[in-house]
């Protein structure tokens, strides 16, 4: 007896979208993006922090690199980024 395959493709797509592969691609993209931003900061020779966004499955995260201290911030909220930048600014005064 054969069972009906109704809805099989939708179930397959749902499972495929939740696989670790998508997460690995996001991690790879995030790593390449961070490397690129770090390289740009070094080549530009500026002491100003570089700030950029990355997207996760559910939201956007902020990243930053400060070439003067070589400190890196990875996938933080906008509030965490704001505190980091304000602390940096206060330290440089």
Concise summary:
This protein is of the alpha+beta class and 93 residues long. It is built from three helices and three strands.
Describe the protein.
The protein is α+β, with helices and mostly antiparallel strands and 93 residues long. The chain has a domain at 30-92. Helices cover 54% and strands 20% of the residues. The protein contains three helices and three strands; from the N terminus they run H-H-E-E-E-H. It has helices at residues 8-17, 20-44, 78-92; strands spanning 50-55, 60-66, 71-76. A three-stranded antiparallel beta sheet has the order 1-2-3, sandwiched between helices. A hairpin with a 4-residue loop joins strand 2 and strand 3. The radius of gyration is 20 Å and the shape is flat. The model is unreliable at 1-16 (pLDDT under 50).
Q: What is the count of helical runs?
A: 3
The end-to-end distance, rounded to whole angstroms, is 78 Å
Structural shape:
flat
Percentage beta strand: 15-25%
What is the structural class?
A: alpha+beta
Order of adjacent strands in the largest pleated sheet: 1-2-3
Poorly predicted ranges (pLDDT <50, ≥5 residues)?
Answer: 1-16
Mean pLDDT: 77
The largest pleated sheet is described as: 3 strands, antiparallel
Query: What string, H for helix and E for strand, traces the elements in order?
Result: HHEEEH
Radius of gyration: 20 Å
In total, the number of strands is 3
The residue fraction in helices comes out at 40-55%
